[in-house]
């Protein structure tokens, strides 16, 4: 399940950076979220980063106005906002 990716990053050879920590997200990182429908979480690839937003590409993200092909999340410093029903755990990066 996607909600386990963040905790198991080192077993996959990836570095994990906590949302709100000292390292900001980068294009190509895997954004990890817990919660959502059924509590299984969600992951996506970060495609754009600015000082105020993070965009991610994902699939199987539901339907309706909140769930286009890519999600745009607000950013303040190294904190990325959580979409409704989710919690942003952080992001994973290949060292």
Verbal overview:
The chain is mainly β. The protein contains no helices and 7 strands. Strands 1-7-2-3-4-5-6 form a 7-stranded antiparallel β-sheet, with no helix packed on it. β2 and β3 form a beta hairpin. The chain is globular, with a radius of gyration of 12 Å.
Shape: globular
Task: Return residue spans where pLDDT drops below 50 for at least 5 consecutive residues.
Answer: 64-68
- Tell me about the largest β-sheet: 7 strands, antiparallel
Helix content: under 10%
Helix count equals 0
What is the strand arrangement across the widest sheet? 1-7-2-3-4-5-6
H/E element string? EEEEEEE
Separation, N- and C-terminal Cα atoms: 23 Å
Assess the beta-strand content as a share of residues.
Answer: 35-45%
Indicate the mean pLDDT: 90
Global structural class: mainly beta
State the total count of DSSP E strands: 7
CA-atom Rg in angstroms: 12 Å
